[in-house]
Amino acid sequence: MSFRKRINNLILGPFISSWALCNWGKLALLFFGTGTPDVRIKNMLQEMSVRNLLTYPDLFFIPLTLTALYIFILPHLNYWVAEKVNPIKQKLEKQHYKFESETNIHSTLLGLQSDAASHGEKTKDIPRRRPDACEY
Q1: SS3 breakdown of the chain: % helix, strand, coil, rounded to 5?
Q2: How far does CA 117 lie from the centroid of its chain?
Q3: Could you tell me which residues come within 8 angstroms of residue 102 by beta carbon, excluding any fewer than 6 positions away?
Q4: How far is 53 from 61, CA to CA, in rounded Å?
Q5: What is d(CA 129, CA 37) in angstroms, rounded to the nearest whole number?
Q6: DSSP 33-70
Q7: Which DSSP category does 126 fall into?
Q8: Cα separation of 127 and 130, whole Å?
Q9: Distance (Å, whole) CA 73 – CA 14
Q10: Helices 24-32 and 37-47: crossing angle, nearest 10°?
């Protein structure tokens, strides 16, 4: 439960994810490398020492930068994209509703024609529409 809370944390979750992406090679050697687990852990700790932070930016600085981008830039980018897509989405929804209403009217008229024809009534008063005619 505690681990799940940390992963869902706004800062820690993205940092752990980006760190794992940047250091997947080191993690693969830790879990699937040759040698005993003690040797693999010792090698991992040597590579991840504090003095290697400046030498290997993928240990801390690149994951920190990716986390900052994810937290601060991505929401603004999502908002911008949604703002650009929303008018197009609304236009498509209007076309869909217009098409649905025309289809409902057309099926209602067809129902009236079939009811009138089944009772032997004249159907000249009901307008007919060619099936291949489309209005856009």
Answers
A1: 75, 0, 25
A2: 51
A3: 135
A4: 8
A5: 78
A6: -SS-HHHHHHHHHHHTSGGGTTT-GGGTHHHHHHHHII
A7: S
A8: 10
A9: 13
A10: 160
**What are the CA-CA distances from residue 71 to residues 8, 12, 74, 75 (Å)?**
13, 11, 6, 7
Structure tokens at 13: 């979750």
pTM over 0.85: no
> What mean pLDDT is predicted for residues 114-119?
55
Report d(CA 19, CA 58) in Å as an integer: 7
Q: What is the mean pLDDT of residues 109-125?
A: 55
Residues in the chain, how many? 136
d(CA 53, CA 129): 75
**Angle at 29 (CA atoms; ends 44, 23), nearest 5 degrees:** 70
What letter would DSSP give residue 15? H
Give whole-number Cα distances, 16 to 12, 69, 100, 118, 125, in Å: 6, 14, 48, 71, 72
